[in-house]
Amino acid sequence: MRLLQMPTMMFSFHGEWDELIKQRPSMLRTFALVVLPLSLLPPAMIYCAGANYGEVFVPGISPRQWLSAAGVFLLAELATVPLMAWLMHLASRANDVVADFRECFTLAAIAPIPLWLSSLVLFVPNLVVVVLVGGLALLCSLVLTYRGVYALVHLHEDVRALQMAAVITGAGLLAWLLLMQIVLLH
């Protein structure tokens, strides 16, 4: 899977999704090639933005505190992906859908990619821009989750797939807000 596939994955139930299903990437491979490198991006950006113009986001925080927050954020991110996979697996079982944990893990690794990439906006020292781009990334993540539930988790009823995607995205949003809280409080 390549990052350039993301836009087409948001607009189709097939194509790149079918290719991903054929590839059947292992959880270790997905973690090593997708989750780990992309989850390094937000903590790096948090530290960079905090150390250079942190007063725009949270007044009174030292660069050392930003570094500590970035480290905690990274650990929390790495724990969130398998936790979301577990939640997806439970949700698929509750919807009487046969999906193995590997498929759920793959979706849990793909869905936050827009959120991870949106951290690049922290190069712009403007809270409004950061919030707007974060909101757009959240919307893209919801769309990827919906398409992924349909394709990877094999839930082919639009309403149930959207319902499951909404529950998963809601839980993901809660996790993301908790991660943000970790950054702001740490």
Description:
With 186 residues, this protein is mainly alpha-helical. It has one domain (3-185). Helix content is 76%, strand content 0%. The chain contains 8 helices and no strands. Helix 3 packs antiparallel against helix 4 and helix 4 (63-94) packs across helix 5. The longest helix is centred in the middle third of the chain and has 32 residues, at 63-94. The termini are far apart. The mean pLDDT is 84.
The radius of gyration is 17 Å
Q: What is the typical, i.e. mean, pLDDT?
A: 84
Q: Return the string of H and E elements.
A: HHHHHHHH
Tertiary shape = elongated
Q: How much beta, percentage-wise? A: under 5%
Q: Could you name the ranges where pLDDT drops below 50 across 5 or more consecutive residues?
A: none
Main sheet attributes: strand count, strand direction, barrel closure: none
The secondary structure category is mainly alpha
- The quaternary organization reads as single chain
As for the number of domains, it is 1
Distance between the termini: 34 Å
Q: Got a strand count?
A: 0
- Count of alpha/pi helices: 8
Could you estimate the helical fraction of the residues in percent? over 70%
Write the layout of secondary structure elements.
Blueprint: H1 6-10, H2 16-23, H3 27-53, H4 63-94, H5 101-110, H6 113-118, H7 127-151, H8 158-185
Concise account of the structure shown:
The chain has helices at residues 6-10, 16-23, 27-53, 63-94, 101-110, 113-118, 127-151, 158-185. With 186 residues, it is mainly α. Helix 4 packs across helix 5.
Labels describing this entry:
186 residues; mainly alpha
